[in-house]
Write a structure and sequence with these properties.
It contains 4 helices and 7 strands; from the N terminus they run αβββαββββαα. The protein is an alpha+beta fold.
Length: 175
């Protein structure tokens, strides 16, 4: 039970660095396990309300990483402004900001992604593990880069903060 809680509660961090966790299968050599995957809850924003469905989450499968879970608990309650999926991401690859999605045979649009509990992150080339202040690729250029490819819009507000904001809004509305 504790093991499941730890694995489902990821990403875990230490000093703002992601801890890579892997539960080895039988006869799997722990020394040969590549620790390159981390699990994140990802919010999919800018989805038309009639498409808040699990099939849309599966349509994005493979674009972000490996699809693990769909959270539909807030759907239909009027509070949901995004789709909520859990993805296993390869930390060697840049995080995705948006993707073009087909909503019907004739309609397509872009959806944007926000990552919950996003840790140390490089705004220069979009990868986890270091900040742009210590990015070797940026330092190799030898000059200050004015425009970064990524920004803080990738960081999702925590679910607790969102719940408190909704609670505060309801309280003000009733008060």
């Amino acid at each position: 039970m504790d093991l499941e809680r730890v694995l489902k509660g990821s990403p875990w961090t230490f000093n703002n660095h992601v801890l890579m966790l892997h539960w080895p299968e039988k006869k799997e050599d722990p020394l040969k396990v590549p620790l390159i995957f981390a699990c994140f809850w990802v919010q999919i924003h800018e989805v038309p309300p009639s498409f808040y469905i699990e099939t849309l989450a599966h349509q994005i499968e493979g674009f972000l990483g490996n699809f693990l879970e769909f959270d539909g608990t807030n759907l239909g309650k009027g509070l949901c402004t995004y789709l909520h999926v859990r993805e296993q991401l390869d930390v060697r690859r840049p995080l995705k900001m948006k993707n073009k999605v087909m909503f019907s045979v004739v309609a397509c649009s872009y959806v944007s992604f926000k990552y919950e509990r996003l840790t140390l992150f490089c705004f220069f080339y979009g990868r986890l593990g270091h900040s742009d202040s210590f990015c070797q690729a940026k330092m190799a250029l030898g000059f200050d880069v004015a425009e970064m490819g990524w920004d803080l819009s990738l960081r999702a507000q925590s679910r607790r903060a969102l719940a408190l904001a909704v609670y505060g809004y309801e309280k003000i509305g009733k008060g």
